[in-house]
Design goal:
Blueprint: H1 4-9, H2 11-19, H3 25-64, H4 70-102, E1 122-127, H5 140-147, E2 150-151, H6 152-158, E3 165-166, H7 168-188, E4 192-193, E5 199-201, H8 202-207, E6 220-221, E7 226-228, H9 233-238, E8 243-246, E9 252-261, E10 280-290, H10 295-312, E11 317-321, E12 333-341, E13 346-355, H11 359-364, E14 366-369, E15 375-377, E16 379-387, H12 388-398, E17 406-407, E18 421-422
Parallel strand pairs: 4-9, 8-14
Antiparallel strand pairs: 1-11, 2-3, 5-7, 6-7, 9-10, 10-16, 11-12, 12-13, 13-16, 14-15, 17-18
Helix pairs in contact: 2-3, 3-4, 5-12
The chain binds one RNA strand of 90 nucleotides through residues 39, 42-43, 45-47, 49-50, 52-53, 55-61, 63-64, 69, 72-77, 79-80, 244, 373, 375.
Length: 427
Amino acid sequence: MIDIKKIRDDFEATAASLARRVVELEIVAKARDLDAQRRRLIAETEDLKAKRNAASKAIGLAVKQGGDVAAAKDEVRKIGDRIQEIDRELAIAETSLRETLLSIPNLPAPEIPTGPDSSTNVVVRTHGEWHDPSFKIPDHIEIGAKLGLFDFPRGVKLTGTGFPIILGQGAKLQRALIQYMLDLHCQKQGYTEMLPPFVVNTASMTGTGQLPKFAEDLYHSNADDFWLIPTAEVPVTNYYRDDILDAKSLPVKLTAYTPCFRREAGSAGKMTRGLLRVHQFDKVEMVNFVHPSTSFAQLEILVGEAEEVLQNLGLHYRVLMLSSGDMGFSAAKCYDLELWAPGEQQWLEVSSCSCFTDYQARRLNCRFRDADGKTKLVHTLNGSGVALPRLMVALLEQHLNEDGSVTIPEVLRPYMGGAERLEPLAK
RNA sequence: GGAAGGGUGUCCGAGUGGUCGAUGGUGCAACCUUGGAAAGGUUGUGUGGGGGCAACUCCACCGGGGGUUCGAAUCCCCCCCCUUCCGCCA
């Protein structure tokens, strides 16, 4: 949620900044007006409440002294009625102000490109080069079939489309990747690992902004009113909901492996082949809680941490800075990491690293006690480190050998019992 | 699933209709004491919001939401959560 004070005190600049994200001036003006109305009503009702408090106190004293208080009671009752009326108006104003504010995205960082969608994203850097080999690279489905890694049809039988089954050395590779990434984050990059619940309550989903807007993208259990997490960001970030951290403990860096569950309503038909878009997938996520003065510097570090995973796996990738129109709602600045998939002949997003400034923390009510003793909102960041299915796709396609085997990156071999290659099944 | 007991400030814990935002202890901070420390002493220490340049002032908050009342931490209703015991169980 955006800071209403920015709209109140610096309307022109805030509206101009939001215009980059295609927010109508009208919406910002509406927030400003509702805020003014709200404050007017607060002044009015609080003035009356002060009167009522004083009068009630006087009645209390009079009763003790045995005086007649009937007339005074009548008087105060009238004040009470008026207070109720104004409070009702105030509640309405506050609700619509909140709704309006929730419909306003975060202020974009000045340096990000302005544009309507992904077409205006900027490639910041590209790591490595890709040279097509002398043989043709099939897509990951075909590669997987020769190696016996996946069973898509039986996934459909068990659950439905978008719930792949990973088998044998594929399952082992996936497990190795997860373990390698967690070890890298924890042993080298200063993270603490968390193994959180994969199911959360409504308050948590609301805290990180999945609810109320994106309910149709989530799996929900009616009996308990629980939700399946679409990303580890939800439990890990909500860990500090309604909490006050010590400034000395910042930055707090948490990482978690979890499965992610996404209904992907309305996405039918887009990139649905194999592992490219699925309803359940594994991901390792990184979440940072940082001092406001360091958040954008921390974002660069975070991107670097995700990149290190890809670099150590010997993969060719690029880094995009997202334009104002393509960024997630809560982000002030966001980088995507994309792996080249030569079999698919396209770039695949495997990580999204975002700085949310105080936008997410305000809704989460996550603060820290600064050196001056005051509580302030922390800044939050998160990044995938990284998502598994598309990583598997790119890894299989980039490391494929002509004989159908796939070379296992060196850093993974200790997790694969020393194996150097995934070998095709015997005919 | 059944039964009982609870949710109050950093924490513990008192408070059952009227200066209670809330006694006391603890924690924290500053100072006094000391060669230094401990102990002891003094003082100060919640959050959010409105108004004000400020000093300051007002309002709200005792799990959440309604209600009764001139007045609610305290009485009534609904909901949530926790603990203990029993049952079931990986």
